[in-house]
Design goal:
It is a single chain. β23 and β24 form a beta hairpin. The chain is of the alpha+beta class. The protein has 26 helices and 27 strands. The radius of gyration is 44 Å and the shape is flat.
């Protein structure tokens, strides 16, 4: 019995029947289908086919400038009169404001009452004679009443325009035995019904109606309902182009706009409920409820909006509305009606009508094909057979592949038909059944035996371990630690974690190294030397041992942590020892373990307090200079092998030179022979000439940057560092490095070329020949700069 209860056939059949029940009842899975519908609608959204619709909005700005709503109807009349001019003359005007009662002019009533009271008082005092009803006084009152009758003004404006469509509203939420009769004038707008129509109970039917007052409606070119119906989730996806009332079908506001625009008579619009809407030569497919599924336009304003105030005051050229469909409606906050649609959370009612009108004119709709009602249950049954009979017999990998392909096919076909053909086929039901069935089969397999569960766990541990080792080998230490933490900390894992911590330590990521050692310590606090390492590296991360990060450090900042047995690395280079401190940072002795080459590594240190933007510019310049210097290949120029950045340190790996710089022979009593001096200067000049021809200027030539090697060769050093050094200034503006060799154009901040290097080489020659510098400014930088700029050479 237990075996039968958990059998694949029973559960497969049960889930298939449940999916069919949800499909026919429209419950359960329907919200998921509607969300998928919205997703496809967003993919299918496009701009309007033509810019033939304009919207005049009664927005917050218009109400603020004209006055609180509702306005006198004379304002609307004035707008219609302005639009009726020959310059503007739209093809049709949709006035999306329902005037269902005559306007009460309280000012007129008050003034009339006061006049009548005063007239009666004068009669009582016998100051005037009593007259008949046709007296001049009564005529005057009648003329005032006519002048202030805004309904008459609006009716005249509607009649003058001759192309105004007005809204009406049906009440549809009640069932009544006898409907109130509609006005006789409204019947002219009822659509014809196809002779083949088989009368059935409609889904939507009017039980009462609210129409414009007759004085306005009698002059209108059309009247249509503005009823909007939400789906169960609150979104609007459909339009009912006709609503039945008293056995007649009355059009929607959007349908009337399209009919009037196409210059069709009301009799030229006909409907076959549940099938087809015919509008002249245009045919629009309806669903079973006689509704149109709207193809919404792109997000945002798909139509051109104009402020009511701006149009009324002539701020918009009349030609903007020429031969167009113009809709006038409310969008002001708290007054205008907003709808939730698949593409917009707050779509104004006036834009909704514009969207539907555009759909009708261009046949851009979403339809439910007739064969969908047979295909969709068939797909559910097909998926039911798959999860019941085939999936349980497949291996896990093959089952996942087939299920994935089926799911992609279902979703893909639904999207394709919707986007390219405008057809809505409900694929969420079979897709949901496929996912639920697959989850059930996989879960059943997973929990079937404890042994298989254990094997899966062991496999997962081994997978994480191998992934961790792979990430560690590629230098992705954080990902490696993430994978190692998923594994139990046994003896083998302790060793792996210990080696990972050493790698963090080599990369100077002391906090992360401490975290890894702490992970080991939680299981075995006495493992190897992790206690000492945690203590030492905690101090190093706080700056007690290590000098701090680039940008925050001092001149004593170093990568070598006192007491650590780990060899630090920069990129692929192992740092062996510190060779000295330069103007820009510390110089280390390094080794490339891949080719066993010893190199000098110069690190770049920026001044404390440098902002992030400046720091980035300096680093970018560093790598540009390193690239330029690295392209130089000359026997008398120091070779640059590599440059890079690791965390907080930028570095440059270059040729390791064994020898001394010419600064040793730049003092009296220790001068080189003149011939040697001239030879070295000539060799340096040739090296600089090569660099200048390749577009590289050194900018910091001095005896300390010309190296004499043990084998007698000469090298010009520090290409690439010099420009950074020259552009980096402290807060007081002091130039880093020795300024005695600087050229006048550098002092003036001008653009420099190779001549600046020749000037500095000349100063170097002078010092090597005489043992002293040509400038006697002492240590005062200002005096020195003045001498360099002004004294004769």
């Amino acid at each position: 019995m237990k075996k039968f209860i958990f059998s694949n056939i029973l559960w497969g059949v049960g889930m298939t029947l449940a999916a069919l029940f949800f499909y026919y009842s429209g419950t359960g899975i329907e919200p998921l289908e509607l969300k998928f519908y919205d997703f496809r609608t967003q993919l299918n959204a496009r701009p309007p086919a033509k810019s033939e619709i304009a919207i005049i909005e009664i927005n917050d700005d218009s109400i603020a400038k004209i006055g609180r709503w509702p306005w006198p109807r004379s304002n609307i009349a004035e707008m219609l009169t302005r639009l009726s001019t020959e310059a503007a003359k739209p093809a049709v005007i949709g006035l999306n404001i329902l005037f269902s009662e005559p306007e009460r002019n309280r000012d007129l009533e008050t003034a009339t009452d006061r006049l009548r009271s005063r007239y009666a008082q004068l009669l009582a005092e016998k100051k005037i004679k009593e007259t008949t009803k046709d007296s001049p006084f009564e005529k005057m009152l009648s003329e005032i009443r006519d002048d202030m009758d805004n309904d008459a003004k609006l009716a005249a404006a509607i009649a003058g325009a001759g192309n105004v469509v007005l809204p009406m509203y049906f009440k549809t939420d009640e069932i009544v035995a006898k409907l109130p009769p509609e006005p006789d004038w409204l019947k002219q707008y009822a659509a014809g019904v196809a002779p083949s129509f088989d009368a059935t109970d409609p889904v939507i039917e009017g039980s009462d109606l609210t129409v414009p007052i007759q004085v306005l409606a009698s002059s209108a070119a059309g009247v249509g309902h503005v009823n909007i119906f939400n789906d169960n989730d609150g979104s609007v996806r459909k339009e009912y182009p006709f609503i039945p009332y008293n056995k007649s079908f009355y059009p929607s506001f959007a349908e009337e706009l399209a009919r009037t625009y196409l210059k069709l008579k009301p009799s030229e619009a006909s409907i076959t409920p549940g099938r087809l809407l015919t509008l002249g030569g245009r045919k629009v497919t309806l669903d079973d409820a006689s509704a149109i599924h709207i193809a919404f336009n792109e997000r945002g304003s798909s139509f051109k909006y104009y402020s009511f105030y701006d149009v009324l005051n002539g701020k918009v050229v009349p030609e903007a509305f020429k031969d167009k469909i113009v809709l006038i409606g409310l969008t002001a906050q708290g007054i205008g009606t907003l709808y939730v649609t698949p593409v917009e959370r707050n779509l104004p009612a006036v834009e909704f009508s514009a969207n539907v009108t555009e759909n009708i004119l261009h046949g851009h709709f979403v339809t439910r094909p007739e064969w969908a009602s047979q295909l969709e249950p068939g797909l559910i049954a097909l998926i039911g057979l798959f999860i019941t009979l085939l999936l349980p017999r497949m291996k896990a990998g093959l089952g996942a592949v087939f299920a994935s392909l089926l799911l992609i096919a279902l979703i893909g076909s639904g999207v394709f038909l919707f986007s390219s053909k405008g057809m809505w086929v409900k694929t969420a039901y079979p897709a949901f059944l496929l996912i639920a069935g697959y989850i059930f089969i996989v879960s059943k397999r997973f929990f079937s035996t404890e042994k298989r569960k254990e094997l899966i766990e062991v496999s997962a541990i081994e997978t994480n371990k191998m992934l961790g080792l792979s990430f560690q080998g590629q230098g992705m230490l954080d990902l490696a630690f993430e994978k190692f933490r998923s594994c139990p900390v046994d003896d083998g894992m302790k060793e792996l974690l210990y080696n990972l911590a050493l790698d963090f330590e080599r990369k100077r990521q002391f906090n992360k190294a401490v975290a890894v050692y702490g992970h080991i310590s939680a299981k075995d606090p006495d493992y190897k030397d992790i206690k000492n390492k945690i203590e030492l590296l905690t101090k190093a991360s706080e700056g007690a041992v290590f000098g701090g990060a680039i940008g925050k450090g001092t001149n004593d900042s170093t990568m070598l942590v006192a007491g650590s047995s780990t060899i630090p690395t920069l990129g692929r280079y192992e740092i062996t020892k510190e060779l000295g401190k330069g103007a820009m940072g510390i110089v280390y002795l390094g080794r490339d373990p891949k080719i066993n080459r010893t190199v000098a590594i110069k690190t770049l240190r920026f001044e404390e307090g440098m902002d992030e933007k400046t720091l980035k510019e300096m680093k970018d310049r560093f790598f540009r200079e390193a690239q330029a210097a690295g392209n130089l290949s000359h026997p008398n120029i120091v070779k640059i092998y590599d440059a890079g950045e690791e965390q907080d340190i930028a570095y440059m790996a270059m040729e390791l030179l064994k020898g001394e710089d010419l600064k040793k022979w730049a003092t009296k009593g220790n001068l080189l022979p003149v011939e040697k001096t001239l030879e070295y200067i000539a060799t340096s000049a040739e090296a600089l000439d090569y660099a200048h021809r390749n577009g590289v200027v050194h900018r910091d030539i001095k005896p300390a940057n010309i190296m004499l090697l043990e084998n007698g060769e000469l090298r010009v050093a520090d290409f690439g560092i010099a420009r950074l050094q020259a552009s980096s200034k402290t807060a007081t503006g002091t130039v880093l490095g020795t300024p005695y060799y600087i050229s006048p154009e550098q002092i003036a901040g001008k653009k420099v070329d190779g001549r600046a290097d020749l000037f500095s080489l000349g100063v170097t020659l002078y010092e090597l020949l005489t043992g002293e510098r040509p400038w006697k400014g002492g240590e005062a930088v200002g005096t020195l700069f003045f001498q360099i700029s002004s004294d004769p050479y």
